[in-house]
Amino acid sequence: MNLNNNSYTVTFTSVIKIRGVNPYILVSHDRAEKIKDGWKKPMPVLVRINNLPKDFWKINMMPVGNGDFYLYLHGNVRRESKTKVGDKVIVDVVFDKEYRNGPLHPMPEWFAKELNKNSVAQKNWKTLSPSRKKEVLRYFSNLKSEEAKKRNLKRAMDVLSEKKDRFMGRLWESGK
User: In which element (H, E) is residue 12 found?
Assistant: First the structure.
């Protein structure tokens, strides 16, 4: 992936930490302002760790609430960069000017079929933010085995049906 024209890359050193089960790097308010001035919502960025992978990864940094952001590191990013929690790393981050809101992945038929059978889950799916829907559909698109699809379908339907539970690294309550 080529970097966007006129993009400013912020490079810094940090330690990979963990929040719950999610490895992350904390991006300070000052650094976030250099990436995209005044941004308050999830920030679409392109990321490399220790100059790897060759092509930058698309990730959304999540706001902490005080101007800082969590840069959660997907397992593929950590595998490609051969890093783990506790490692000191060099981080390259640039704002993703090509980011478009809303789902990029189609809804899998196996998920749509179950949603259509459950009015509560369907109602809660419709009220999810576009970025949350996009996150779920991207996650589903990476599932390979039938076992993984069944397991994650059950968990998704449980939380969308207002069962309090963890799914995709966070606690869901009341279908959100």
Answer: strand 10-15
